[in-house]
Amino acid sequence: FPAPNLPEGFYEDELLTRRDLVWLTTSENERIPACYVRAKSSPALRPLTILYSHGNAEDLALHLDYIDSLAQKTGSDVFSYEYVGYSMSKLEGREPSEAACIRSIDAAWRYLVDEQKIPPQRIVIFGRSIGSGPSVDLASRDTVENSAFSPLDVAGILLQSPLESGARAVFGHVISCIGQCLDIFKNYEKIEKIRAPVAIMHGTTDQVVPVHNGKALYEQLQKPFKPLWIDGRGHNDMPEDVCLNYAADFLRHCSASLNKESYE
Description:
With 264 residues, the chain is of the alpha/beta class. It is 35% helix and 16% strand. The chain has an eight-stranded mixed sheet, sandwiched between helices. The longest helix is centred in the C-terminal third of the chain and has 24 residues, at 240-263. The relative contact order is 0.12. The model has no long low-confidence stretch (mean pLDDT 93).
């Protein structure tokens, strides 16, 4: 978990000045920041909400421009939360871990569905890179502690450069099997439990999380959406406009499916 090591002044300037900043509390009483970007849509239209989990070597303050663009391009609200042990949480002395990431996304889930009263059917879970770990974990579970709503009922799941697991992303299948008890974010054990449509995009020359991770996960899906394999692109050079267009297409698909179900 190589969380960025930035001075407190950076977060005071970039993050704490945001009007859409909110604070969450995990089940272990850990405080984490989040940003709730609202789409500029017609008041008569209720947009979907994207629950976004960021990649490993970044934090909430480093992708603010991206979530603003994501909301604008998709016409959806975007709720991006921080992991325990990253940004402001790191400055408070917290340590990141797989369990801490799960506690963080659970806190974000409770905020959206239990506090903000957003139906799960209007939420799309989006995870990038290591963010696919908490995203898949949440979307594969029937319950969340202290929540009245099930993540199995979300509108969809969008994954960018997802990993099969921490070990498989780095070492491949053989080593991950040998060290299974030490492996983290075992998406390959969970993703087949997801009932909602799942969209996957991945660069074909990714050297950080090789594309075989995304393709292996795709083969396990109950409801696959047409994947996007971007030729000649790696982990950090996937064209943002192409990725945003794909996200927008998937959000339209989720919205259309939701509207169809409401009429049946």
